Amino acid sequence: MTMTVHVDIVSAENEIFSGLAEMVFAPAELGEVGIAPRHAPLITKLLPGEVRVKVSDTETLEYHVSGGILEVQPHLVTVLADTAIRAADIDEASALEAKAKAEEMLSDKSGKIDFAKAQAELAQAMSQLRTLNRLRKRGR
């Protein structure tokens, strides 16, 4: 029998996923982490990117988070995301538009923009586009 860990992925808006998994992969602050059942306790900041939940040998669920916190206990993994969406539900046109808008804001030299906000929006859009590209390469 395969060991599993309970996984909850939640955002401010709603619960995205709750169930058992064999493994969880997440974009932690110092690099991607892989969480197996009975992992040592851990709390880390999440960067924008893809969270993968390996439910079985044949099924892996993919989500995009804009950042947040990852809490790991031996039998529970909790992803507290700022925002989260199923990777397959990412709107490519919106991500491309957000990227273009953020790049335009960053090129504005008038000083009338919020530089940090523009950088965050650009990072979010780029992260969504990377997630879409990985999905395409995997043939989904």
Q: SS-based structural class?
A: alpha+beta
Number of strands: 10
Looking at the structure, the CATH topology of the largest domain is: ATP Synthase, domain 1
Mean pLDDT: 86
* Shape, per Cα inertia axes: elongated
Unreliable spans are none
Termini gap: 28 Å
The CATH homologous superfamily name of the largest domain equals F0F1 ATP synthase delta/epsilon subunit, N-terminal
In the CATH scheme, the class of the largest domain would be Mainly Beta
The secondary-structure element order is EEEEEEEEEEHH
Count of DSSP helices?
2
Radius of gyration: 16 Å
Classify the beta-strand content into a percent band. 35-45%
For the largest beta-sheet, the strand count, sense and barrel status come to: 5 strands, mixed
* Percent in helix: 25-40%
Architecture (CATH level 2) name of the largest domain? Sandwich
Order of strands across the main sheet: 2-1-9-8-5
Domain module count: 2
Would you write up a description of this structure?
- The structure is a single chain.
- This protein has 140 residues and is of the alpha+beta class.
- The protein has 2 domains: 5-87, F0F1 ATP synthase delta/epsilon subunit, N-terminal (ATP Synthase, domain 1), CATH 2.60.15; 91-137.
- It is built from 2 helices and 10 strands; from the N terminus they run E-E-E-E-E-E-E-E-E-E-H-H.
- It has helices at residues 92-107, 115-137, and strands at residues 5-11, 15-21, 23-28, 31-35, 42-46, 49-56, 59-65, 68-73, 76-81, 84-86.
- A 5-stranded mixed β-sheet has the order 2-1-9-8-5, with no helix packed on it.
- A hairpin with a 2-residue loop joins strand 6 (49-56) and strand 7 (59-65).
- The longest helix has 23 residues, at 115-137.
- It is elongated and about 60 Å long.
- The model has no long low-confidence stretch (mean pLDDT 86).
